[in-house]
Amino acid sequence: MITPCHTMISRSSAGSKPKITGLNDYRPVALTSVVMKLFERLVLAYLKNITGPLLDPLQFAYRANRSVDDAVNMGLHFILQHLDKSGTYVRLLFVDFSTAFNTIIPTLLQTKLTQLSVPSSICQWITSFLTDRHQLVKMGKFKSNSRTTSTGAPQGCVLSPLLFSLYTNDFTSTDPSVKLLKFVDNTTVIGLIQDGDESAYRQEIEQLAAWCSRNNLELNTLKTVEMIVDFRRYTPALTIMNSTVPTVESFRFLGTTISQDLKWDTHIDATIKKAQQRLYFLRQLRKVNLPQELLIHFYSAVIESVLCTSITVWFGSATKSDMRRLQRMVRTAERIIGTPLPTLQELYTSR
User: Fold this and answer.
1) Strand, helix or coil for residue 179
2) In angstroms, how far apart are the furthest CA atoms of the chain?
3) What's the pTM value of the predicted model, to 2 decimals?
4) Which InterPro entries match (predicted)?
5) Closest Cα partner for 322 from 254, 258, 271?
6) In Å, how far are 84, 283, 300, 305, 348 from 341, measured between CA atoms?
7) pLDDT band at residue 323 using 50, 70 and 90 as cut-offs
8) DSSP string, 77-126
9) For 124, left (φ over 0), alpha (ψ -120 to 50), or beta?
């Protein structure tokens, strides 16, 4: 059992919005003691070893030799393979959960872990870890009174992402024409539509909504969006829980911007813009005579990492014009640093 000394301190940090307009714009990050983090890492390694072979094959988080790029590549493979057939189109639903980690029911999680052959002693330890937690909120120099909670897996804890993956492991697609891609709490429903028959896709989404209701997860219908890859016809909007799901022309899927025309212009434009912003800092470092070796390290960590984000997904399909634009960023960095740097083609080939 875990004693009350593992008190959580939830520090409210600003979320993705640059301007805070309400409490929902804050993202709570739970902090535990160093000792608890060590225990969590031990349990994490043990859980990954036991549950790995039993996980949903389309869950890409916490799997050996799998990454975000693999998830995106798999999704694109399903889409392109399907569109090669006549009379087809694809609907993609990018699901957003409202405070997903915070709504996990520990007793239900324990049942799911038992079904995944996790020993009862480990199940009890995890339940003890998640229940009767003493929490307080800290914002700047202000602290709230401590309260006890027994729901959810705190964001910021080592174990939380894996526990959420295991919590949602039992929901999978029941129809071969619908694929359910998961990466922790990022869930994407891919409907491979043939001859205009969307019944399986819509039924799968109804089952997803029902499963969420049974498992205390809430679909955020305000942030859940759909993208339709169909070059010929108008398709009716999707409705979830009496709310019409908005359609988008592009979506940032696990760090890669996918457009409904399956071209990479939008993603590459965003990549170049970010790289240009960071080249400014490289120039400033050069002006203060930072050694060349450190400039190269800065380029690799801050600029090259941006240019190579999900490069295995999009580089092979990029136009020659886009490749030249991207390589121009590398040549600019070469002039600033004063030494040759690996080309994007070389980096792509080495991956």
Assistant:
1) strand
2) 64
3) 0.85
4) AlkB_hom8_N (IPR015095), DNA/RNA_pol_sf (IPR043502), RT_dom (IPR000477)
5) 271
6) 39, 16, 9, 13, 14
7) very high
8) HHHHHHHTSTTEEEEEEEE-BTTSGGG--HHHHHHHHHHTT--HHHHHHH
9) alpha
Question: First and final CA of the chain: distance in angstroms?
Answer: 45
Structure tokens at 37: 């983090």
63: CB partners within 8 A, 6+ apart = 52, 55
In sequence order, the 6+-apart residues with CB closer than 8 A to the CB of 339 are: 292, 296
Element (H, E) at 190: strand 186-194
- Mean pLDDT calculated for residue range 21-34: 69
Q: Distance (Å, rounded) from C-alpha 263 to C-alpha 266?
A: 8
181, 74 contact by CB (below 8 A): yes
- The average pLDDT across 182-198 equals 92
HSE-up of residue 174 (Cα within 13 Å, Cβ side): 12
Top-confidence residue, 86 or 16: 86
At residue 202, the pLDDT reads 94
CB-based contact 322:264 (threshold 8 Å): yes
Helices (H), the chain: 34-51, 68-83, 106-115, 120-130, 160-167, 199-214, 265-287, 292-298, 305-307, 311-314, 320-337, 344-350
Buried b (16+ CB within 10 A) or exposed e, 174-210: eeebbbbbbbbbbbbbbbbbeeeebebbeebbeebee
Both tokens assigned to 303:
């600029």
- Residue 224 DSSP code: -
Give the domains, in start order, of the chain with CATH numbers.
Answer: 4-56+104-153 (no CATH), 68-99+167-259 (3.30.70), 265-350 (no CATH)
Other CB atoms closer than 10 Å to residue 326's CB: what's the count?
20
What's the rounded mean pLDDT across residues 334-344?
95
Encode pLDDT of 143-159 as tens digits.
888 888 788 887 778 88
Q: Which helix (H) or strand (E) holds 31?
A: strand 26-31
